[in-house]
Write a structure and sequence with these properties.
377 residues, alpha+beta, FAD/NAD(P)-binding domain, 2 domains, 23 strands, 26% helix, binds flavin-adenine dinucleotide
């Protein structure tokens, strides 16, 4: 059996960063995939949205005190400085999001350079862990013994590139609470009453969405299977069950001046014609000059500012960018990332019950947790 002081499970964002910090110790990285960092590769449309100008716990679902503490210890400025010192200077796109200048491969190469010398055992899928005096890590290619185990194995999203439930199984095995994992940053499927939206596949609109206590502004994309786009993906993070409310005319009011117009509804509001036609059909209103609307018709049209409905569900883990829920953070010591239930066991990244919005928040989280990791000899 191979013996190591530290085993890191998962060569993704948090696992690679963690291994780089402990590369001078007797350490090995176990990765189920044939290649490391598959998720970084496909992230941000192949350019990896690494972080954001505005990082704070408000952009995360999870305990704000725990999240804020970890994020404050390794801020977006710290991450950018860390990357620049190593030759990668991310570029700002979409206002506040930092991306690799050319391709995600730039970040992957940097991280792999940082773990040079660390045995990176790809094609080693971890199946189980047990603990006697030390940990025994069982993989599909044999067993490893380690004094410390760092679980950086992520969540359940994108099973086709290697996601497994190993982090949650390990947590539960050692007595942790795992808050029910669910797909997040994912499109919604629709109930029959909203099937009209499916006919609009390909159209994108700026909208404002209210979901629970959260207000989200951004683009919404009508898709073949339902609705998607940044505003909807962010909404999915905060949606449990029940209704969401969409404002299809953010920043504009249906006021008396507008209702006095002699122009057709579909031309005045400036929304795509296909959308207007489908929307008017759905609310049972004929396209007509605005000035001809009676009280009841006006009330119907006002639904364009607050279209309320309950999504049927979401597109599932095969499309979800992240997994919400996960290992309860009150059972993790934020000073070290060590389990409060099992000495020598650590959890990082997405496996924890902290999930960020779109915009680089999840990589920032993964890297911040890896920087907080503190493994005593
Ligand atoms: C399509 C897509 C696009 C995304 N784009 C962005 C973006 O632009 N910006 C952003 O901030 N976030 C993005 N995310 C989210 C981000 O990728 C994750 O939140 C982040 O990678 C989590 O880091 P992690 O280290 O916790 O886990 P991961 O990076 O997922 O790494 C976990 C590693 O563990 C390995 N593993 C899993 N199970 C086992 C096992 N049983 N044995 C051995 N190894 C195992 C996996 O193969 C993987 O390599 C995106 C996600 C997806 C799916």
């Amino acid at each position: 059996m191979v013996k190591k002081e530290i085993i890191v499970i998962g060569a993704g964002a948090s696992g690679l960063m963690a291994a780089s910090r402990y590369r001078d110790r007797d350490i090995a990285l176990l990765e189920g995939n044939a290649r490391p960092a598959e998720k970084i590769k496909i992230s941000g449309g192949g350019k990896c949205n690494i972080t954001n100008k505005d990082v704070s716990p408000e952009h995360y679902l999870g305990d704000p005190a725990f999240t804020g503490d970890i994020l404050a210890g390794f801020t977006q400025r710290d991450l950018l400085a860390w990357l620049r010192e190593r030759g990668l200077d991310p570029v700002v796109r979409k206002g506040s999001q930092y991306f690799c200048p050319r391709s995600s491969q730039e970040l992957i190469s940097l991280l792999l350079h940082e773990v040079q010398g660390v045995p990176l055992l790809t094609g080693h899928k971890v199946l189980d862990i047990s603990k006697e005096e030390d940990f025994i890590v069982t993989t599909d290619r044999g067993e490893f013994e380690a004094k410390k185990v760092v679980v950086a194995a992520g969540g359940l999203s994108f099973p086709k590139i290697g996601a497994t439930d190993i982090a949650f199984r390990i947590a539960e095995k050692f007595g942790h609470t795992v808050h029910t994992p669910k797909p997040a940053l994912v499109g919604f499927t629709l109930q029959k009453a909203q099937f009209w939206m499916k006919s609009l596949s390909g159209i994108s609109l700026p909208v404002h969405v209210n979901v629970g206590a959260k207000s989200i502004t951004g683009d919404m994309l009508f898709a073949h299977r339902g609705i998607s786009g940044p505003a909807i993906l962010n909404s999915s993070l905060y949606w449990q069950k029940g209704e969401i409310v969409i404002d299809f005319l953010p920043g504009r009011q249906l006021d008396d001046r507008l209702f006095g117009s002699r122009k057709q509804i579909s031309t005045v509001l400036g929304l795509p014609r296909r959308f207007m036609k489908a929307f008017l059909d759905a609310i049972g209103l004929k396209d007509q000059p605005l000035c001809t609307l009676d009280h009841e018709a006006k009330a119907k049209l006002e639904k364009i500012k607050s279209y309320r409905f309950a999504p049927a569900g979401n597109f599932g883990y095969s499309k979800a960018e992240v997994t919400a829920g996960g290992v309860a953070t009150d059972e993790i010591d934020p000073k070290t990332m060590m389990s409060r239930k099992c000495e020598g066991l650590y959890f990082l990244g997405e496996a924890l019950d902290v999930t960020g919005e779109l915009g680089g928040y999840n990589f920032q989280w993964a890297f911040a947790t890896a920087q907080r990791l503190k493994i005593e000899v």
